[in-house]
Design goal:
Layout: E1 2-10, H1 27-39, E2 46-47, E3 56-66, H2 72-82, E4 87-95, E5 107-115, E6 129-130, H3 137-145, E7 149-152, H4 162-165, E8 170-180, E9 186-193, H5 200-212, H6 220-227, E10 242-248, H7 255-264
Amino acid sequence: MKNIKLTIAYDGANFHGWQIQPGVLTIQGVLTGAIGQITQERIVVHGASRTDTGVHALGQVAHFKTHSTLSANEFQRGLNGLLPPTIRILAAEEMGPDFHSRWQSQAKTYRYRIFRGRVLPPFDYLRALHYPGPLDEDAMAAAARLFEGEHDFSSFAAHSGSEEEEREMKRLIYSSEIMREKDRDEIAYSVRGRSFLRYMVRKIVGTLVEVGRGRLTLEDIPAIFEARDRNRSGPTMPPEGLYLVSLEYPDPTDSLASTSLRSRRGELP
């Protein structure tokens, strides 16, 4: 049986997120249908990140297992011929049997775009947040650095009921920065971390915007972490500015990769 890894880009504006849901159009649903059409098998597609409604991807990663004799390159060509133009398979490769797009991910990078000009270009509609008002971008950049390191992100997560409350809320952030886009009246928030809670990036951006507006200060950020209260952070920003940029995986030749996966599955003591 082959284990095929896909690197996928998509415009999420007209999709109800990644995960299959009854009665609505999702990335996973469309992709599963296209693969099944090629293989004539019941395929399960596993994605590395369950992006929400309206969120985009430049480098989502997924995998599926199949008895098909087609090569990875043939899958890439065939899927791009069947999928809508808003979903593209950027790369396909055959992996070892233990590869898992979600469980073996070592880091994810997200970017959130904020267009600062007076008039939003029509090509950026539903692809960037339009915020032409005054913002202290230097204060936002300084505040962004305070999210680096390991923190309890309870104040920056979705409220989704009791199960969410019992989850591990600590997350490790490797880098967090505000950047000015060259030759564009636009800033972007870029964050790279081990894993993320739902709405976490959009809540962080909302908090940084509040800093830029002068409603929060740098000194408020540690107190918001300590409070573990979603009402203390900034608003959850709209999804259209958010992009899953890339995922990182261990070297497939590293034997520790498969050992780590088996351990996570409970197959090792």
